[in-house]
Design goal:
Length: about 200
């Protein structure tokens, strides 16, 4: 990465390089493309900062988050397995993947709290939690809005707390044991999808 940035007339902070690796995994072609985009974004500045990477390469994160969230919403176990396998194959860190899954449940919990406190209406909540899905997208927006608040209405606080607690246990196991992180996350998603399909609405 240092040699490539140098050839483009730039350098990068350690934090920026770590973030790039986190976002692109071991896909060297994607990494090179992102580096070129970032250099173009910098213009006259010589040093790539963490914020530059987040601004230019954030769409990668959004795509991963979108795939995880969409398939968890549908409780589509097979599709979730494909996404997980792709993420691990590309070298994405287990902690990052776990964070995407945890965010899915935290967003639902946060929406519940906002509605309970009458702090924000549904449109404002959706805009904050799903900023990449905009009203101008028409039917796509309407469908995703409906699906999200269906889960917000139907998943109990008790079950949300249970799912988040299980993810915390997985996080600890990833850090303290030799058990495969992919196996742990696949097991969690299997239990979640089974629970959702068995009860219909959780």
């Amino acid at each position: 990465m240092d040699r490539r940035f140098l050839s483009l007339g730039k350098s990068a902070t350690i934090e920026a390089k770590k973030r790039l690796v986190e976002l692109t995994g071991n896909d060297l072609s994607r990494l090179d493309n992102e580096m070129e985009k970032i250099v173009t974004f910098l213009d006259e500045r010589k040093t790539v900062e963490l914020d530059d990477v987040n601004q230019v390469s954030g769409l990668i994160k959004s795509f991963f988050e979108w795939e995880i969230s969409d398939n968890l919403t549908k409780a589509d176990y097979e599709a979730c397995l494909i996404v997980l396998n792709n993420l691990f194959r590309e070298g994405i860190k287990p902690e990052y993947i776990l964070g995407l899954i945890a965010k899915f449940f935290r967003d639902i919990l946060l929406a519940k709290l906002y509605l309970k406190e009458n702090d924000k209406d549904k449109k404002a909540i959706f805009k904050e939690l799903k900023p990449h899905i905009r009203e101008k997208f028409g039917k796509f927006y309407t469908d995703k809005f409906r699906d999200f608040f269906f889960l917000v209405d139907k998943i109990s606080r008790r079950n949300l707390n249970h799912f988040l607690s299980e993810l915390e246990k997985i996080d600890l196991n990833i850090k303290t044991s030799d058990v495969s992180a992919q196996t742990l996350l696949e097991g969690f998603i299997f239990d979640y999808c089974l629970h959702k399909r068995r009860e219909g609405t959780i």
